[in-house]
Amino acid sequence: MTSEEVKINVEKALEEIRPFLQSDGGDISLLSIEDNDTLVKVQLKGACVGCSVNQMTLKSGVEMTIKKYVPQIEKVVNIDM
Question: What pTM did the predictor assign?
Fold first, then answer.
């Protein structure tokens, strides 16, 4: 899978999870894909920023969905801005 294909598939994964985040007043943006396409950096927004379960959402929701689309992804991290 090329880097461009990885990015397209990560975006597809985020589109799948985004409605669930938006229904709770949050959102998510892709910041970068690094380390030979194994690390995805995202930014949680809105209500997700201060939410006490955002790390659980990140791991069990976002990371799992991204890995479904791009199995080579090893880790998804949230970058606070």
Answer: 0.90
Contact 51, 57 (CB under 8 A): yes
Q: Which of 6, 65, 12, 18 is nearest to 43 (CA)?
A: 18
Query: What averages of pLDDT result for each successive group of 10 residues across the chain (81 residues)?
Result: 96 95 93 96 90 80 94 93 73
CATH classification (class only), 3-78: alpha beta
Q: Spell out the domain ranges in the chain.
A: 3-78
* C-alpha span between 74 and 51 (Å, rounded): 24
- Number of C-alpha atoms within 13 angstroms, CB side, residue 41? 9
Instruction: Give the pair of three-digit tokens for residue 74.
Output: 């090893």
